[in-house]
Amino acid sequence: MSRRGLAALSSVLDQAASSATNILVLVLAARLSSAAGFAAFSMVYVTFSVLLGLNMAYVGQSVVLEHGERRAVVCRSAVAFTGSASVLVGGALAVVGLLLSGPAAGAFLALGAVLPLVLVQDGLRYCFSALRTPERALAADALRLVCVVGALLLQPSGASPGRLVLVWGVSALPALALGLWLLRPYVRGARADLRPYLRRGHLGQRFVVEFAVGNGSSQLAVLGLGVFATPLAVGALRGASTLFGPLNVLYNSANAFGPPMLGRRGGKRAVVRTTGALGLVLATLGAAWAAVLYLLPDRLGRQLLGETWSSAAALLPATGAQYAAMGLGTCALLTLRVLAPKATLSVQVVFSVLSVVLMLGGYGVGGAQGAAWGLAAGSALKALAAWTRATRLPTPEPATPTLGPATPSPPAQTPGPATSSPPAQTPGPATSSPPGD
Hints:
Blueprint: H1 3-32, H2 35-63, H3 71-99, H4 103-130, H5 134-153, H6 161-170, H7 173-187, H8 195-198, H9 203-228, H10 231-242, H11 245-262, H12 268-294, H13 298-305, H14 309-313, H15 316-339, H16 344-391
Helix pairs in contact: 1-2, 1-5, 1-11, 2-3, 2-4, 2-6, 2-9, 3-4, 4-5, 4-6, 4-7, 4-11, 5-7, 9-10, 9-16, 10-16, 11-12, 11-15, 12-15, 15-16
């Protein structure tokens, strides 16, 4: 297998290890806790998940767009900023814990204490992506998976939420130490500069808005659906989307590790060809996965989702269409992120809101089936809009070759065959959008 193939495989496996860690933490916490204790743990873990997403958007997504000699400085600065910001946020969470009572108080105190460990450890993944060494991220995240599962398995039944959060956070120390050690050769001698993260107009600010709109709107819409819809409809939508979790691993891998690899493809045409082919592959996988789930015997389906299976299975064609469209849309947004990072915000905002409107309207027309097809239509429209914008981006003009110092030309020469040197190579992907964004 080529080095590029190994890098792609390492990227997918790293995202799988990270996702498996998050899933197993919740499963083990549920087995060890009482109902009230797991509720408190879940509330704290949701808080952590939001902070993790914000850090990914503000720091991680801007890091993976870097290339060239600045990568060492950017990686060291990203680690320093994440560590500093997480200490401040951790202090605020500790204050929240002191103001609360009951099981959640100790859980928030523990999260405040361990937040710098877990956020910096996760943030190293994006540094290794920018450095085009995803196998190092895989090594650290695999160690993290082993440590957190082992540490939680040693806890007694009925352990308090605070204890579980503290054990979960402290178990990140070995992976954090390994990650920093693997990063050290690449950033040795570079000086951290936190000023870009504090300036107005930092690219991460746009990505934070995208994260808030793209993730928050859909989550709040499904929760809001429960106000006037039956719990069965909400459970069916949740259950159907849960079955497509493996595809989320692939989509997240493309977002996290795609930009540095695409940065080596050359100009706009090469990037669009690559992401277009990848989009077709992901869309095909989405449709194939939906077909596999649809053909599952009811006995196996009930083992996966229990009583929710029968209602979720009816939504599989619509959810499969949604995830096929999401595969195309993910690669379209990835294209824009590499060629014109500022161009993704308007697409995300407009079509995320449109997806919510279509979901709610679909429910009004056809119940849970209508809501699922509304989400599929929203994803398809977002993919179409993103690809339309990507294909309309201007192609960078070749640079004018420099022929050396100007010399007086002889008078009135007769033109002959061109003898100038060939034009310079087309520059790589731009890191900002065209003026018309």
